[in-house]
Amino acid sequence: MDKLLALRMFIETVDASGFSAAARAIGVATSSVTRMVDALETELGTVLLNRSTRQISVTEAGAAYYERGRAILEAVAEADAQVADRGDQPIGLLRVCMPVAFGRCVVAPHLQRLLARHPGLEVDVTLSDEISNLLSERIDVSIRLGSTLHSDDIVSRTIGHFQRWLVVSPDYLRAHPTPLLPIDLLQHECLRFNYGTTRQNWSLRGGGEDLQLEIRGRLKSNNADLLREAALAGAGVALLADWLVGPDVSSGRLIRLLGQYEVNPGQAQTSINALYLPNHRGSTRVSAFIDFLQEVLASAT
């Protein structure tokens, strides 16, 4: 018995909730799947699946075997991909993680171009504003905005830069005086990103000034999209990335304030960084994605 093939047929049967559906997914006859799963149970000396005329269900032993078996198949697939990943063309699965708003606004509209360019590449994108553990979460590339990471355990490559803008809606300005100087922001409702701290400073640099303003506001969130929507609705002044609010400013839905100043939260930086593990150096998949993202960022400037 081909143990690896039998394991795959068992996994497919559980995932598809039936032998027929599993056979269609693999491209073999239903009888072949049934026979291989039966042989697997005989060799193990235990029942993996409860069968009835209408459905199957996984036994307790089958559930445990399924989890270990899936991990084995994924490890084999990853080993195959690692070997193929040193070729001329990117082949296999690439796992990418990036911030929610950045992925939605900047990357998602261009993913079809990446897939069309590399037919052998499969991309799994996770959107999260949390810092990913590349090793435990099995992430190939993590895109982070802000400070460059300095670590012997992780490669950090700067692939672009962005700006942060102070923006406000026309409706808000009709009801409040326009801030003409940085100090004027202290008299306004400021929409704050939640960094886990009670106080928050906005840093403004320009015209010979370098100011740290402890801004205030009744609304804060850990989601940039929410703050953008709140700014559009007239809730206050927001400090958001140009790639997120650029179209709103161009259309007049939002107005940029104090454009002569470089504005950031605290000492935050404005680099766009690709993070990956040292053993991914030379990875065709990683290189293809980074090259693609650099093209996207260059076309957006």
TrEMBL record:
Q: Which UniProt keywords apply?
A: DNA-binding, Transcription, Transcription regulation
Q: Pfam families per the record?
A: HTH_1, LysR_substrate
- Cite the GO molecular-function annotations of the record: DNA binding; DNA-binding transcription factor activity
Q: Which InterPro entries match?
A: LysR-type_TF_proteobact-type, LysR_HTH_N, LysR_subst-bd, WH-like_DNA-bd_sf, WH_DNA-bd_sf
Which SUPFAM superfamilies did the record assign?
Periplasmic binding protein-like II, Winged helix' DNA-binding domain
Q: CDD domains in the record, alphabetically?
A: PBP2_CrgA_like
- Asked whether the UniProt record includes DNA-binding among its keywords, one would answer yes
Against Gene3D superfamilies, the record matches this protein to: 3.40.190.290, Winged helix-like DNA-binding domain superfamily/Winged helix DNA-binding domain
Show where the HTH lysR-type domain sits.
Answer: 1-59
Give the PANTHER family listed for this entry.
HTH-TYPE TRANSCRIPTIONAL ACTIVATOR TTDR-RELATED, HTH-TYPE TRANSCRIPTIONAL REGULATOR
What family does the database annotate? Belongs to the LysR transcriptional regulatory family.
Name-wise, this protein is DNA-binding transcriptional regulator, LysR family
Query: What is the source species?
Result: Azotobacter beijerinckii
